[in-house]
From TrEMBL:
Signal peptide region: none
Domain N-acetyltransferase: 37-199
Region (Disordered): 1-28
Organism in which the protein naturally occurs: Kineosporia succinea
Protein name per the record: RimJ/RimL family protein N-acetyltransferase
Basic and acidic residues composition bias: residue spans: 1-10
């Protein structure tokens, strides 16, 4: 995961992990509705919201490179809408939609590497106006069951800048364990068995 500036609160209590039905739907229909957000595949109509938050200086603070142009972003969303959910060597992004505000407020995703079967590298980014309110944690708590149960991953990993406390703080709250910290980058992991054993 490339580092993101994330939700800064402890967030709401953990949500149930078995009530939102990723596994009961076709890949095109996979949608989770939590107490406050919907996690779903990106659609072309999400372009304006996506461009707004992914180009925000606060969000870019720990990201390499430049924001996507409108053309690049449109192509990215179109590819995501049609991407096979088990495609390897690909980033799989899911929009986090806020029904009350009728806008996409961020995204969660996973990189599935061909040379690391059974493992995914996760990431997330959210609009600054929605930091500190538990949205990132709420979305990720419902994304993890999809990764472990539907995609049958044995382990997920994530990394961020060591100075990005918001990002690694969320990883810890999700139950991830620290693997390495060289003073520049922190790497975390969460194994399926550990996740299933969490209360």
């Amino acid at each position: 995961m490339r580092a993101r500036v994330l939700d800064r609160s402890d967030g709401p209590p953990a949500l149930p992990r078995d009530g939102y039905g990723w596994g009961s739907r076709s890949p095109e229909e996979r949608t989770i509705t939590t107490a406050r957000v919907t996690v779903r595949r990106f659609a072309p109509g999400d372009l304006d919201d996506f461009l707004t938050y992914q180009s925000d200086p606060v969000v870019r603070a720990h990201l390499p490179g430049e924001p996507m142009s409108a053309g690049a972003a449109a192509g990215f969303l179109a590819r995501q809408a049609d991407l096979d959910e088990r495609q390897t060597d690909a980033w799989h992004a899911f929009a986090v939609h806020h029904p009350g505000d009728d806008r996409v407020i961020g995204d969660v995703g996973v990189w599935l590497a061909a040379d690391r079967p059974g493992t995914g590298d996760i990431g997330f980014q959210f609009a600054p106006a929605y930091h500190g309110q538990g949205y990132a944690r709420e979305a990720m708590q419902q994304f993890l069951p999809y990764l472990f149960e539907t995609l049958d991953l044995g382990e997920v990993t994530a990394g961020c800048d060591s100075v990005n406390r918001a990002s690694w703080g969320l990883m810890r709250r999700l139950g991830m364990e620290l693997m390495t910290d060289d003073g520049t980058v922190r790497r975390y992991r969460l194994r399926a068995g550990t996740w299933r054993d969490q209360p």
